[in-house]
Design a protein that fits this description.
The protein is of the alpha+beta class and 193 residues long. The protein is 18% helix and 42% strand. β7 and β8 form a beta hairpin.
Length: 193
């Protein structure tokens, strides 16, 4: 049984097409960003929640009536951040916000910037980064000025729960995932005048 030249050509074409299909499947599988199964899902969540947010005071000790500056900064090295939410809590018995909040320089739009001195809460949302490159350093979300009311010790904290989207968050560009993994509050000692 000899194969004709025409039949050999057809067989070679089918083999070449199968090789290209196989190569395409390999390329697509290697380029896939999410796993096909849930294996390693816990470790994936741990690496995605890499961002941090911090409240930084210019001074850690103050007197009643002395104006002090607090910067709220975030970082997520190597990630692109589309938006950030900060929910700040402070004790209104010890502190009050002095004036309007100052927007940071990273986001173009701040759709929410609310202060409630009676409950001791600040809500700030920044979206649409001016620069869409992956983060290489810490960025300023906003600045707030406090005035201490009386002597004592108090804290300015960020409300945060891993994975929650209704508290402090860092939203990753392209995935809309909350990548905030940790927050750092600021402590303040208010001395007698």
């Amino acid at each position: 049984m000899t194969l004709k030249r025409n039949e050999l050509t057809k067989i070679l074409i089918v083999i070449v097409v199968l090789i290209f299909l196989l190569m395409g499947m390999v390329v697509m599988r290697l380029g896939r960003k999410t796993p096909l199964t849930n294996e390693g899902a816990d470790s994936q969540v741990a690496t995605e929640a890499q961002g941090s947010m911090v409240v930084q005071l210019t001074i850690n000790e103050a007197e009643p009536g002395e104006r002090l500056k607090a910067d709220v900064k975030f970082n997520a090295l190597g990630s692109k951040v589309y938006g950030a939410d900060a929910v700040i809590r402070f004790d209104p018995n010890y502190l009050e916000v002095d004036e309007e909040l100052e927007q940071g320089y990273f986001f173009a739009v701040y759709p929410r910037a609310e202060v409630d001195n009676s409950t001791g809460t600040i809500h700030v949302t920044g979206i649409s980064p001016k620069d869409n490159d992956p983060l290489t350093d810490e960025k300023l979300l906003f600045t707030v000025y406090f005035v201490p009311k009386k002597a004592g010790q108090t804290e300015i904290s960020l409300e945060f729960q891993p994975g929650a989207t209704n508290l402090s968050t860092l939203v990753e560009y392209g995935t809309s995932k909350n990548i905030l993994g940790s927050v750092t509050p600021a402590s303040l000692i208010i001395k007698e005048d």
